[in-house]
Amino acid sequence: MNRTEPLVLGIESSCDETGVGIVRGNTLLANAVSSSMEEHVRFGGVIPEIASRAHLDAFVPTLRQALEEAGVTLDEVDAIAVTSGPGLAGALMVGVCAAKALALATGKPLYAINHLVAHVGVGVLDGGELPENLGALLVSGGHTEILRVRTLTSDVELLGSTIDDAAGEAYDKVARILGLGYPGGPAIDKLAREGNPKAIRFPRGLTQPKYMGSAEVPGPHRYDWSFSGLKTAVARCVEQYEAAGQEPPVADIAASFQEAVVDVITAKAVLACTEHGITNLLLGGGVAANSRLRELTAERCAAAGISLRVPPIRLCTDNGAMVAALGAQVVMAGGEPSGVAFTPDPSQPVTSIHLPAA
Ligand code: KG4
Ligand code: ZN
């Protein structure tokens, strides 16, 4: 196998995006994505069974599109990489089975890749090798995590995460309360521009001293987030206006909600970085599209002396190129293939960057 600049095909199916990406070393050749988001709209959130069926329909066309875009054949590929977790069990299963079938049919080595770490690995496609003292802030409909990345292919640590809803999920739920439709993130982001972010002081979850503790004696949730109380506070606020026979000020509520989310995400992420000597931060996940999150992260990172990297948004949302990128890094680092006996792991921890052969 070519381990200096391997041609790697990456497959992603952990949520509602079917992604097939192709890279050569650190160079992006193709990034084909098919999303089933439209099919979830009327339910106001991703329905796992619908997502799984959509992956099944989308896989072969998306694979063909990626190969065409890259101008390569399956035969030329050095290795196949696939997301094995974390994610929705049924959705992961479709991508993993497709990847195993391809690996068996072509005789190519297969690598089972961690989705979260792949969100970090994608950084190499935009600006090359990742810097030292690296942290990653991942914010999407499925995750809200702050990671410390010592070595991308072998040493990643979870510093903090949400203990309930992911940030994007909170956006989607609040958008539903405000009657804005799904997905809620872009709608709230837009409406918030017309509102006053200081109109209502919504709660910042897990910021009380009993959760934070101090730098010397950290509390149990110093770097963790919680968004379920915030969502409830928005619902109560809307109810109060309605009970009084008044129209809720939706733009002010959207702006104030967004400010609460973005404030607590950035404050805790920057705190985790400064207390762990992290001087470079990569922002990833679908919510990285949020204008206020980008703005406040940049502002607070600059103030803390942290240099910030935000890949282009099509690489931040779920895609196959990120899986291919991390797969290629593992191949280049001499990592062994995972074989075809592994099973997807819906709660694969970040410490498990690629699965060993079963
Ligand atoms: O990464 P992604 O495409 O899929 C996963 O959830 O893994 O992220 C989708 C999430 C949705 O919850 C959507 O509401 C949110 O990202 N989102 C945004 C924005 N654009 C997308 N949230 C806030 N502001 C945005 N501009
Ligand atoms: Zn993701």
Compute the number of helices: 12
Number of strands: 10
- Unique ligands: 5'-O-[(R)-(carboxyoxy)(hydroxy)phosphoryl]adenosine, zinc ion
How much strand content do the residues show? 15-25%
- Report the average pLDDT across residues: 95
| Number of domains as seen in the coordinates | 2
- Radius of gyration, Cα only, in angstroms? 20 Å
Main sheet: strand order: 3-2-1-4-5
Shape: globular
- By CATH reckoning, the class of the largest domain would read Alpha Beta
In CATH, the topology of the largest domain is named Nucleotidyltransferase, domain 5
Series of H and E elements? EEEHHEHEHEEEHHHHHEHEHH
What is the straight-line distance between the termini? Answer: 21 Å
Low-confidence stretches: none
Coarse structural class: alpha/beta
The biggest sheet, with number of strands, parallel, antiparallel or mixed sense and barrel status, is: 5 strands, mixed
CATH architecture of the largest domain: 2-Layer Sandwich
- Assign a percent range to the helix content: 40-55%
Q: What is the name of the CATH superfamily of the largest domain?
A: ATPase, nucleotide binding domain
Oligomer: single chain
Cofactor: Fe(2+)
Organism: Arthrobacter gallicola
GO molecular function: tRNA N(6)-L-threonylcarbamoyladenine synthase activity
Protein name: tRNA N6-adenosine threonylcarbamoyltransferase
